[in-house]
Amino acid sequence: MENWLHASADVEEAAALTAHLVSIRSYPGEEGDVQRAVAAWLTEQGLTAELLPTEGDRPNVIARVENGPGPTLLFNGHTDTVLAAQGWSCDPWRGKREGDRFYGLGAADMKSGVAAAMLATRALDRARDRWRGTVIFTSVVDEEAYSIGARALVDMRLQADYCVVTESGWETPTLGAVGKVLVRADITGKAAHGSWPEEGINAAVEAAKLIARLDELPLGAHPRLRATQCVLSLHSGNEQYVITVPEKAQFTINRHIVPGEDGESVLAEMRHLAGGLGSPASFEFAIDPPYYPAWELPADHPFAGRFAAAYAAEIGHAPKWTYGSGVADTNYFAADLGIPSVQFGPDGGAFHQKDEWVDLPSIAGTVRVLLRLAIDVLR
Ligand SMILES: [Zn+2]
Predict the structure, then answer these.
(1) Taking Cα atoms as reference points, which of 280, 221, 224, 281 lies closest to residue 248?
(2) By CB count within 10 A, which of 3, 169, 246, 356 is most buried?
(3) How far is the CA of 181 from the centre of ligand 1 (A)?
């Protein structure tokens, strides 16, 4: 088995595949070319890859390896990247290699993770005597923006028994994360001449009163995840200078939620707080996209145990489980589709910054962890 694992995870092949994916620019909205490159590689390797349309030229890629009755394991990653920051020391798409490190846009987040899942899928296709069931590889678009790619998989009710999202995190395999609710508040007052403000209802002032009391909200408590809120924007008044009491105001809040909270519970809290103001203005609350439910896989869940065994066999120590303070597509697979999920992938750094990097041997290491896990759970 050790020979098979090592033969299936060549560092140079993993490095070349990662560099190839990095070389194809794929800002959110322009993932078509890189997704076709993913599908073409899978096809060259003898797998059946399908492009599933989302919107525009932004297909998801899906490849199924069916190997008789048995459980289903899903691998997922995204190929879109954030926009290149200023000050790169190399071309962000050509990248550069220094020893074991490869620098490039999306090297860590997360074209190397996609490459690891591609290599693991190929290895499982070629070693069908070692497992039974189904492996599904998916590469999605738009994770860095609205997650329309993952949402499309949710809408088709993609079914699996287990899922690994191969986001970077060699030392930080993740068993849960906060969710996210973008709350929009629309405040309506009454216009009046600004020289007689008592004749109007000033929406800007009423909005400010509510914002000043936001810290009275009982944010959800959780032993491992932290609920937070942050006012992202506040707008009121007329575009042009006029002496008029503003009749409209709007603000948005980025609210991170923990398991037990959801969009409805957040809206109910906001309405309750606004109701207690005794304000003459009217307050309306709505949820803007993207919405992410919170998730957690209990550390004593059998899939967490099997992942921990595969991880320890490869890396030499038990995982130090991490709980994310930001959101990812894993939220949808774990919470909306209810698939027991772990987030784990190659070692990297400088996410969403200049000179993002990935450790090349850890891509091959990720392939081996995925293979150890697959042959353990797929039986
Ligand atoms: Zn990512």
Answers:
(1) 281
(2) 356
(3) 19
